[in-house]
Amino acid sequence: MSDCALCQDDGGLVLVRHADWRLVRALDTPAFPATYRVIWNAHACEWTDLNPEQRERCMDVVARVEALMRQHLQPTKVNLASLGNVVAHVHWHVVARFDWDSHFPAPVWATALRPIDELRWQAARPRLAQLDAALTAHWA
Amino acid sequence: MSDCALCQDDGGLVLVRHADWRLVRALDTPAFPATYRVIWNAHACEWTDLNPEQRERCMDVVARVEALMRQHLQPTKVNLASLGNVVAHVHWHVVARFDWDSHFPAPVWATALRPIDELRWQAARPRLAQLDAALTAHWA
User: Fold this and answer.
1) Closest Cα of chain A to B94: distance in Å?
2) Nearest to B84 among A77, A85, A86 (CB)
3) In terms of CA atoms, which chain B residue is nearest residue A45?
4) Per residue in B65-120, pLDDT tens?
5) What's the gap in Å between the CA of B37 and the closest CA on chain A?
6) If 0-12 CB within 10 Å is exposed, 13-18 middle and 19+ buried, where does residue A116 land?
7) CB B99 within 8 A of CB B117
8) Domain tally, chain A
């Protein structure tokens, strides 16, 4: 699909490149630094365009990302979503939410409720780096 | 969890009531009449609070809802999400999106881009009813 952004580009900083999927950290969500995406490599528009075995493998990755995210960041809540209205290529968002983040408890796509707390995100940087490392190591 | 809305209430119009989960159609999303929720009956905050076998069963339901939604509504895109920032009790949103809906291609939680097209939703009513019936029949 030559016009599909996720066929042409990685979609973020690649942490794991598997034969069937890749795990990236988003670089385009400044209010939510702990945003990861599990992207199916082959072009598929809808979740049910994958077969059951592919879906199971993809969700295993999503669950593992969530588990490591919880372990390293202790977020208030983890948000999972597969939308694809703009880029209709299967990808799961896994986002760590904190009760102090700019939008909580609203979804990340809603209007911000408060300014980004740069100091708290800065303080979280070591743990964010640990999570990146743990994710990379898990599939190494 | 006496203070959890999804422990106290069904969370919508119940179409299927299974031992472990229920399928409801949302009644609180007027802009998105084709919004379904797969709700895990037992209280669990995060997706990874379910064990792998429970997650697989839950996602099988989500996928089946998506498949029947595609068959009956032919939406532009299906949106899947498990957020739970307000009600931290595992539930999946399965939402049929259309390129003419009030928010497309923005997420349903973003600011509307245009008015609700009541006439088109009214025209879709027979298919929405067919989808309800097909979902109910599938697990009957």
Assistant:
1) 10
2) A77
3) B77
4) 999 999 999 999 999 999 999 999 999 999 999 999 999 999 999 999 999 999 99
5) 14
6) middle
7) no
8) 1
Which chain A residues touch B62 with a CB distance below 8 Å? 47
What CATH number is given to the structural domain containing A122? 3.30.428.10
Q: Among A46, A41, A38, A52, which residue's Cα sits nearest to residue A8?
A: A41
Say how far apart CA A97 and CA A48 lie, in whole Å.
27
For chain A, list residues whose CB is within 8 angstroms of any CB belonging to chain B.
45-48, 52, 55-56, 59-60, 62-63, 66-67, 70, 76-86, 88, 97, 104-107, 109-111
Q: How close, in Å, is residue A67 to chain B by CA atoms? A: 6
| ipTM, 2 dp | 0.97
The pLDDT score that the predictor gives to residue A125 is: 97
- Give the β-pairing of B77-82 and B91-97: antiparallel
**Beta A91-97 vs A21-25: how paired, if at all?**
unpaired
Q: Tell me which residue range forms the domain holding B123.
A: 5-138
For residue A69, the chain B residue with the least C-alpha distance is B48
Cα A77-A102-A89 angle, rounded to 5 deg = 65
A97–B85 CB contact, under 8 Å: yes
Distance of CA B56 to the CA centre of its chain: 17
Q: Catalogue the E-assigned strands of chain A.
A: 13-17, 21-25, 35-40, 77-82, 91-97
Write the pLDDT tens digit of every residue in A37-79.
Answer: 999 999 999 999 999 999 999 999 999 999 999 999 999 999 9
Q: Is residue B139 within 8 Å of B65, Cβ to Cβ?
A: no
pLDDT grade, residue B1 (50/70/90)?
low
